[in-house]
Amino acid sequence: MSRTSITKSHQKIQELSWEPTFVSPVEKYATDYTFEKAPKKDPLKQVLRSYFPMEEEKDNRVFGAMDGAIRGNMFRQVQERWMEWQKLFLSIIPFPEISAARAMPLAIGAVPNPELHNGLAIQMIDEVRHSTIQMNLKRLYMNHYIDPAGFDISEKAFSNCYAGTIGRQFGEGFITGDAITAANIYLTIVAETAFTNVLFVAMPGEAAANGDFLLPTVFHSVQSDESRHISNGYSIILMALSDERNRELLERDLRYAWWNNHAVVDAAIGTFIEYGTKDRRKDRDSYAEMWRRWIYDDYYRSYLVPLEKYGLAVPHDLVEESWNRIWNKGYVHEVAQFFSTGWPVNFWRIDAMDDNDFEWFEHKYPGWYDKYGKWWERYSELAVKNGHGPITFEGDKADYQYPHRCWSCMVPCLIREDTIVDEVDGQIRTYC
Ligand SMILES: [Fe+2]
Ligand SMILES: [Fe+2]
């Protein structure tokens, strides 16, 4: 690489940006935010010349690990309980990634800052790469795992399945509505800055504990791009904060983005980690413990709360209620119960919990057995073929009322006492 200074190159690149004089641009992705008074800076000074060699090295490691997994016979040693949940997870995750790529033109069109456009364009390339290496990982699992059924139909299953629709709603949020709401507050400030910690750090750790070292290689390759995306988002939110007219929009969007991320990501990743693992060492952190550290302490207390001094209204009540749902209201356990009820229509298997699991759950979530133990014992009994129907259709034996969907996050209203019912355009709707 030549030694020309990054600062000089970065300045040069901005000269390539221009406003056409011969035509007035059509506003394609509208926003209510205003950035007239905003300072225009990209603290990271991102340029492609340093970006490509770094990404090439990362790709080499990913593809090297894939090769290693095949030669090392990883697929014979991995826990089946874990791999089954990957059929669902890997059906969903490439979609939010490619939606994140598609969100970048929204942000570029809405933010009048050539310095930042460069970083956003680089993020777009990142997100395409993420989607691609995840699809490739899925293909590798399909070709080498002992039971490929489920991996082979995952794209089709994703768009037709009751669980896939939740993921689809989540990913479409990056590209729907106000450009800044979608591409900045919802995608970057909340999904990337807060929730990728459990998605791309906690989950790979659990994969490794279950004998899968390939997924961590792929997802850490994704997560290490996330710092660049977080920086892009931070630059935009600082621009938004410099104008008083954006205050109410920011407050509205943070509330919406926080709740939807919590409802969807904690449902999915919480269930994969707590119910997909065979690792029941007591010193392993539970999902609740990881959440407390990475989302409550590292994001909420160290990132979001300090933004208050710039005039940001932080949704303290929603953050506390999310924790309350995870810790006191059994949110993740309710989701796992809901998923396992749906097994006749699932394209992945859900392993029954055994005594080892019961002991761990009771240790980590005191009172768990009284509330969920019987369900999982029945689930075990009904998993054995002896002429009965699936648990879904064994009314009394199942002792389960199928919940209504939340028409905001698409996850069912699992904390039943909190369900809100309203009439919208003549239709009765339920909300979590
Ligand atoms: Fe990504
Ligand atoms: Fe990202």
Key words describing this protein structure:
single chain; 432 residues; mainly alpha; Ribonucleotide Reductase, subunit A; 2 domains; two-stranded antiparallel sheet; 17 helices; 2 strands; binds fe (ii) ion
What does this 3D model show about the protein?
The chain has 432 residues and is mostly helical. It folds into 2 domains: 35-327, Ribonucleotide Reductase, subunit A (Orthogonal Bundle), CATH 1.10.620.20; 401-432. It contains 17 helices and 2 strands. It has helices at 6-15, 48-71, 74-77, 80-92, 94-110, 114-144, 154-160, 164-172, 179-209, 214-241, 247-275, 287-304, 316-327, 331-341, 355-364, 368-382, 395-398, and strands spanning 420-424, 427-431. The protein has a two-stranded antiparallel sheet with strand order 1-2. Strand 1 (420-424) and strand 2 form a beta hairpin. Helix 6 packs antiparallel against helix 10 and helix 12 (287-304) runs antiparallel to helix 13. The longest helix has 31 residues, at 114-144. The chain is globular. The model has no long low-confidence stretch (mean pLDDT 92). It binds fe (ii) ion (2 copies).
